[in-house]
Model the fold of this input.
Amino acid sequence: MQLVVARIGRAHGIKGEVTVEVRTDEPELRLGPGAVLATEPAAAGPLTIETGRVHSGRLLLRFAGVRDRTGAEALRNILLIAEIDPEELPEDPEEFYDHQLMDLDVVLADGTEIGRITEISHLPSQDLFIVERPDGSEVMIPFVEEIVTEIDLEEQRAVIDPPPGLIDDRAEIAAGEGPARDGRAEDGVR
Done:
């Protein structure tokens, strides 16, 4: 099975290095020197990692055969794809591969069905589950511990505890509170 592990960013310096947006929790395993990665688009690869280093908090890679800035810049926005065994699991039991999460049923703690995960969107700040609801509409659910309280691969479900307004248009208003007022009387008389 193929797993997207990074996206190539801009060239760094003049010797063929590129920045990469890491999309794996195991960069040392997937993006180490000697790793051969497929690419999307496929015509750009495969690429073999020659060197890797961290500079100012960013991972920099150099690929075999890429020796200058022009060659590095030509790789910009290419996805790097690793081949993994579909039975392989991440070392941390709280981590999951995208293929493990796809098609999971999404339910509330009381068992109320919300929908099914159809896509996982990887954003810089967090990942999002794109959930198709029974009526065909979609809802985006941040994949954060406060909202996704349990992933049960045996039962093929993700249990969520969404804040008000996340899965529907109704936001709860605290009891006894009305609309905010600026202190002036309605008719202008006090």
